[in-house]
Amino acid sequence: MATATSSAVYLVSLLIVSSLVSGQIRYSIPEELDQFAFVGNIAEDLKLVVWELSARTFRLISDETKQYLGLNLENGILFIHERIDREQLCGQRSICSLLYKISLDNPLEMHRLTVEIIDVNDNSPGFSKDEFSLRIFELIPPGTRFPLESAHDPDVGTNTVSTYQISPNEYFDIKVQKRSDGDIIAELLLEKSLDREKQSTIHFILTAIDGGIPQRTGTAQFIVIVADVNDNAPAFDHELYRANLRENSPKGTLVTQVSAVDLDEGTNGELVYSFTSHTSQATRELFSLDPESGVIRVKGILDFEQSHIYELGVEVMDRGPYALVGHTKIMVRLIDVNDNVPKIDVTSASNTVPEDAQIGTVLAVISVSDPDSGENGNVHCKIDRSVPFKLQQVLSNNYNLVTSDTLDRETVSLYNISISAWDRGFPPLSARRHILITVSDINDNAPRFTQSLYNVFLMENNTPGASIFAVTALDADLDQNGVLSYSVMDSQKQDVSSITINSKSGTLFAVRSFDYEEVKKFQIKVQAQDAGFTKLSSTAIVNIIILDQNDNAPVIVSPLLWNNTASVEIVRQSLCPGYLVTKIIATDADSGQNKRLSFQTLEVTDPSLFDMGLHSGEIKIVRNFKNEDTTTQRMIILVKDNGQPSLACTATIFVWVLANITEKMSVELHQPRNSSQFSELNIYLIIIFGSTSFIFLVIIILLLVLKCKQNRNVSVDETRCCIPCRKRHSSDGFNQRAVRQEILNYSGVAPTLPVSGTYHYAVCLSSESSKSDFLYLKPTMPPNNENYRATSVSK
User: How far apart are CA 90 and CA 69, in angstroms?
Assistant: First the structure.
């Protein structure tokens, strides 16, 4: 391009003016010519011959440090030695020249050479930097101008900046003005109001155009920063925030974050969040708000049952000199958690129910509730275990506690009813309530004796008025229904007055003293009656058994005693060993061991002649009677019972030994008879004993007669004809079939007395039998048999 420009300039070559007068040569050349480009012909312009240049020592003198021009001494042409940059050489000066001095010797000549460097439009306008920024407040009115930085073009004249242009935009235009010094300046014209919130930065390109041919341009990027003015209030991104939160959320749980936007910037856009004055203090204690971030967190303990929805008022304020405020609301809904156990309320109750209450009787009104919601508050209720009560639902969550079965206080008097209620939450929660129901008594149980039959053993001769026994009756009822009174009912009228009873304690008392010998047993009926409104009663039988006491001494009934003395007559011929002299028969009104008698001799004239049976009372001959033995034998007999202490009686027995059977011996008793001994009872005994003896004697005689007929061959001693005193076998006159037991019956006081033992009797005949009025029986003792006893029959 530079070469083309030089050629063009060279073709249009400027006239070289030689001023011989002034001695000056002036050339005009464009800048940026190529090296060796033609400037002028010095030799011609100085009118010198070419050879003179060398001969006269042509010199080109300059103050420039660079040698821009050179001279060809062979042809005298001045040429470009070094490329010339006018902007570098002269800057912005309007005239740029290279000044030289030409010196020639022989003769010395001095000439001035001025080479004017003509500007060529070789530089484009340029800005000091590629990007510029302008800060313009958004409230500046339209029409306001803002000076822009000018572009710089090193070229001069028409080649420098001649105008400016701006890229199309909505807000700005360009105004170009020429200053008095000739510089072209540009101003930015605001045509439309700025709004930083709509467009905070505006970009455009400013183009500087020079006046050269061809034109050159330079551009720069301009950024207009719309400076903020606090003309916008903060605005939340939502007018209403909604948050759902579990009621058991711990402290610090994030609820939500509010966010506000302020289109302003700087302090005008710095926001601070806070609760509005409409937010209650209670709500402020539950929630916290971060003033910088707008984060809302749980601060206190949330409870769905206290409030399930909270409305928080939040405001945001910027930090501008005239702070603007924005508002929003946060609606926090709590999600119910099953954190409340059901509640059981007994609004009315009767703690007592009679045992005869009808089925369906209402005892209590029960209501259940749960402050939770939904399934968490859906409560069900039941009685835990099997009791005669049930829950009858009346309304939702309302029940009646009613009886479902018959009651029996005597079986169960107190019911601890456990009522459970549970919700349907997850996990389910339950509650339990206890209701104590007391079953009140009614008189539905008659008294019951511990025994239906009592046997009371009472020792005779008891102390009158002493307690003898206590009957006990039980009544399962309570209070008056269980208060018992005892009484003796009529049974055996003769005994009712003998026994009384304590009406409260049931203790039996004997009014009189009892005698076993008079009354051995009697029966009374005892009644127990309660004190209920409708009196109930029951009876029991009490058998009072009188126990014998050894209070009766034995009484000798045989032989008959007169003045405690009896006599027995025996013939001498019958006195052989084992002969039964007599049998002491005694009776004792007592019973048991007290009636068991034993016999013994206290004094005997000849102890070797007689023997006394200890228990039988039989007096027997032990040995044969001797002639020297006295015919009158005296024995003192002792009869005692086995009681404790033992009681006894004594009697004196006289035994008269007769010479023969016809002789009657009498005993004169020196003591007068006591008529009191012959009581009515003794008379009865004598009659009974005599009758029995007579009958027994007749039977024996008949048996002996029969036996004698069968044994005619038996020899009889002349002096003593008797059946030998020995044991009879079946071939003898007395066979075993004839043996029987005789029973002596005595009416009155004495009981029936068996004569224990069976005896064989032999008839003894003497030579004087014709003189005898009676036959005496001689007993023969069966050997080795203790059960045999002898009975004597006398007149």
Answer: 16
Overall pTM surpassing 0.85 (yes/no): no
Give the pLDDT confidence score for residue 743 in this predicted structure: 33
Instruction: Output the CATH code of domain 448-547.
Output: 2.60.40.60
d(CA 411, CA 446): 15
Closest CA to 285 of 295, 270, 275, 271: 275
Q: Is 670 left (phi over 0), alpha (psi -120 to 50) or beta?
A: alpha
Could you tell me the strand order of the sheet in which 362-369 lies? 343-349, 362-369, 398-403, 389-395
For residues 698 and 746, the answer to whether their CB atoms sit within 8 Å is no
Residue 593: strand pairing partners: none
Report H helices in 622-777: 680-710
DSSP string, 1-29: -HHHHHHHHHHT-PPPEEETTTTEEEEEE
Nearest alpha-carbon partner for 253 in 290, 294, 296? 296
The domain covering 555-780 belongs, at the CATH homologous superfamily level, to: Cadherins (2.60.40.60)
**Distance between start and end Cα atoms, the chain:** 211
In the predicted model, residues of the chain with pLDDT beneath 50 are 1-22, 494, 662-677, 713-795
What is the separation of C-alpha 505 from the centre of its chain, rounded to a whole number of angstroms? Answer: 47
303 contacts 318 by C-beta, under 8 angstroms = no
The whole-angstrom separation of Cα 759 and Cα 779 is 7
Q: How much is the CA Rg of the chain, to the nearest whole Å?
A: 85
**Amino acid letter, residue 70:** G
Q: What is the dihedral of CA 580, 584, 585, 586, to 10 degrees?
A: -160
pLDDT tens column, 4-63: 344 333 333 333 333 333 368 888 889 888 888 888 988 888 888 888 888 888 888 887
Tokens 């224990």, located at residue: 756
- d(CA 377, CA 53) in angstroms, rounded, equals 127
Residue whose structure tokens are 């008097």: 413
Query: Which tokens in the block code for residue 249?
Result: 């959320």
> Distance (Å, rounded) from C-alpha 492 to C-alpha 487?
15
Q: Tokens 């009958």 map to which residue?
A: 695
What are the angstrom distances between the C-alpha of 564 and each of 83, 227, 636, 677, 749?
206, 167, 10, 9, 19
Tell me the two tokens of residue 270. 């710095």
Domain ranges of the chain: 2-118, 131-227, 235-335, 343-440, 448-547, 555-780
The matching CATH number, chosen from 2.30.29.170, 2.60.40.60, 1.10.10.10, 2.40.30.20, for 343-440 is 2.60.40.60
Superfamily of domain 235-335: Cadherins (2.60.40.60)
What is the pLDDT, as a whole number, of residue 146? 87
Give the C-alpha separation, 187 to 209, whole Å: 15
Confirm if 288 and 332 have CB atoms less than 8 A apart.
no
Burial tier of 336 (Cβ tally within 10 Å: 0-12, 13-18, 19+): buried
Quote the CA–CA distance of 290 and 611 in Å, as a whole number: 138
Superfamily of domain 131-227, CATH level 4: Cadherins (2.60.40.60)
Q: How do residues 444-494 score in pLDDT, each as one tens digit?
A: 889 999 999 999 999 988 999 899 999 999 988 888 888 999 999 876 554
Which residue's entry shows tokens 């090296």?
35
Using alpha carbons, select from 190, 204, 312, 296 the residue that is nearest to residue 251. 296
Six-digit token string for 285? 């204690």
φ/ψ of 496, rounded to 5, equals -60, -40
Positive or negative CA dihedral for 345, 348, 353, 356?
negative
413 Ramachandran zone, left/alpha/beta (phi>0; psi -120 to 50): alpha
Q: What angle do CA 647, 653, 655 make, to 5 degrees?
A: 155
CATH topology of domain 2-118: Immunoglobulin-like (2.60.40)
In this chain, the answer to whether the domains covering 2-118 and 555-780 adopt an identical fold is yes
